[in-house]
Design a protein that fits this description.
75% of the residues lie in helices and 0% in strands. It has 164 residues and is mostly helical. Helix 1 runs antiparallel to helix 2. It is elongated.
Length: 164
């Protein structure tokens, strides 16, 4: 449960730090999902009805936000983000999925197993969303200048020249 509250706070912090509305909304949706996960585990702990988990809308919202961002093409200064923070968020999501997979392996209650499977699937979606945000923000750092291709022929046969 602490992992979920930490993730919710982290996504809210990331939302506050961005100037791009679409990315801010993605992080707020992820924070809402983490809060929902906390409430689900709280219900499990209290042994109340577990069937009320709503499906996450974060993936659909993220798709819409990316389509809008691609259409707007925000300036590099606007989307500049803390890439380390996004990598940390991806690690958080991967770790969350791993913890829930371990819990799933130990769980015997079919209702709890189904719930854990749904939470794991959402954590995996969250990872993909954050990875897409990372890739989007990092894209300006990933281009190759034309000059870098000027000596391609020189390297094309490199392995063959050394007998490889």
């Amino acid at each position: 449960m602490k992992m979920e509250t930490d993730a919710e706070a982290y996504y809210k912090k990331l939302a506050e730090e961005t100037n791009v509305e679409g990315i801010r909304n993605i992080f707020l949706d992820l924070a809402a999902d983490e809060k929902k996960h906390y409430q689900i585990f709280e219900a499990m702990k209290a042994r109340t009805d577990l069937s009320a988990m709503e499906d996450s809308k974060a993936l659909e919202s993220a798709k819409n936000a990316f389509e809008k961002l691609l259409g707007q093409r925000p300036a590099a200064g606007e989307i500049k983000g803390d890439l380390d923070a996004y990598q940390h968020a991806m690690k958080m999501e991967a770790e969350g999925a791993r913890v829930y997979e371990e819990a799933l392996a130990r769980e015997t209650n079919p209702e709890v197993q189904n719930l854990l499977k749904r939470v794991i699937a959402e954590e995996q979606k969250h990872f993909n969303i954050i990875q897409n945000v990372y890739d989007f923000v990092n894209a300006p750092n990933e281009f190759l200048a034309w000059r870098e291709f000027s000596n391609v022929e020189e390297f094309r046969n490199f392995g063959r020249d050394v007998g490889a």
